[in-house]
């Protein structure tokens, strides 16, 4: 009897829908249907993945090169520290290369600013250069402090802290995406802090000053120059990544062949395999559903709200739900 009554009630609702009162997707009208009832036209205006942008394999590779730029830069700094720590290179050579690289990058950065009309005046350039020279003086003055800062801490703890800070630097670096987790300040400070932990194991004040200057070039100046360069000339993305990869591979090979192979494998995995997986898995992206609710004031209808539902189902499960 209960089943028959429920069946009769459902038939009555369907009769009301088809003959007397057709169900409408509005909030202002009182309708003779249950609150949880929705007619077949409820999702007529539904749209799926409105803002979804399909990424090609080439675009994915270009985006992955942004990541490899910074990873290669961090690894290159660690290699320079290892060479200095093991006495395989003189601090004068490192300082000369760092100074030459800095001035070339500084002039190139000013040229890029001039092309984008961001260059304010020659006074601005003078102030920037004066600030950099002032920092170099402070770094040289505090080199003895940095050298003995972690003297009472074990080398293993210092190296582990440096590795963690460099990972933070890589994770929070700005790779051209405006997302919440990006923090250029946190990334830069983590890189400098990891540098301070490492340079405390060097033997001379000049080596400490040289590595501090090199860290500023890699963790502060280079990200700014790289971002502006790729903004104006995006086609230089892949050649730049290849040049950095060649430099890292050539300098790492005398230290460890195993680490060199691991670096090459990491480079291939991020730039090619991860890009291919990203393109293939785009079809599995969760469905974004969007529809509109209309309310009225008197006889005038107003669109007041657009509600977006982020579903965790894929297209197949979505079709099953709406079937």
TrEMBL record:
Any one annotated GO CC term: glycosylphosphatidylinositol-N-acetylglucosaminyltransferase (GPI-GnT) complex
Where are its TM segments located? Answer: 60-83, 89-110, 122-141, 208-225, 261-281
- Keyword annotations of the record: Glycosyltransferase, GPI-anchor biosynthesis, Membrane, Transferase, Transmembrane, Transmembrane helix
Per the record, the pathway is: Glycolipid biosynthesis; glycosylphosphatidylinositol-anchor biosynthesis
Q: Name one GO molecular function term.
A: glycosyltransferase activity
Q: Does the keyword Glycosyltransferase apply?
A: yes
Give the bilayer topology.
Multi-pass membrane protein
Q: Which Pfam families match?
A: GPI2 (PF06432)
Q: Among its keywords, does the record have Transferase?
A: yes
**Mind listing the GO biological process terms from this record?**
GPI anchor biosynthetic process
Subcellular location(s) per record: Membrane
Instruction: Tell me which family the UniProt entry assigns to this protein.
Output: Belongs to the PIGC family.
What's the protein here called? Phosphatidylinositol N-acetylglucosaminyltransferase subunit C
Species source reads: Trichinella nativa
- The record's gene field reads Pigc
């Amino acid at each position: 009897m209960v089943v028959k009554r429920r069946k009769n009630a459902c038939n009555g609702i369907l009769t009301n829908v088809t003959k007397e009162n057709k169900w409408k997707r509005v909030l202002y009208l009182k309708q003779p249907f249950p609150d949880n009832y929705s007619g077949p036209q409820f999702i007529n205006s539904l749209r799926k993945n409105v803002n979804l942008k399909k990424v090609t394999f080439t675009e994915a590779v270009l985006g992955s090169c942004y990541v490899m730029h910074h990873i290669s830069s961090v690894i290159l700094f660690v290699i320079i520290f290892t060479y200095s720590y093991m006495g395989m290179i003189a601090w004068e050579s490192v300082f000369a290369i760092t100074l030459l690289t800095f001035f070339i990058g500084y002039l190139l950065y000013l040229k890029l600013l001039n092309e984008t009309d961001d260059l304010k005046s020659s006074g601005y350039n003078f102030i920037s250069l004066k600030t950099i020279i002032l920092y170099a003086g402070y770094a040289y003055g505090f080199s003895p402090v940095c050298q003995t800062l972690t003297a009472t801490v074990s080398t293993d703890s210092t190296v582990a802290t440096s590795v963690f800070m460099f990972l933070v630097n890589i994770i929070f670096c700005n790779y051209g995406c405006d997302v919440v987790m990006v923090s250029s300040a946190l990334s830069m400070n983590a890189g400098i802090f990891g540098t301070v932990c490492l340079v405390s194991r060097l033997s001379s004040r000049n080596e400490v000053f040289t590595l501090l200057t090199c860290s500023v070039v890699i963790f502060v100046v280079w990200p700014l120059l790289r971002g502006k360069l790729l903004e104006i000339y995006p086609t230089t993305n892949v050649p730049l990544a290849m040049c950095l990869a060649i430099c890292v591979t050539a300098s790492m090979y005398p230290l460890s062949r195993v680490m060199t192979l691991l670096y090459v494998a990491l480079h291939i995995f991020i730039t090619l395999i991860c890009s291919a997986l990203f393109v293939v898995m785009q079809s599995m992206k969760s469905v974004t559903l969007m529809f509109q609710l209309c309310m009225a004031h008197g006889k005038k209808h107003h669109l007041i709200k657009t509600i977006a539902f982020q579903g965790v189902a894929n297209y197949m499960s979505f079709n099953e739900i709406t079937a």
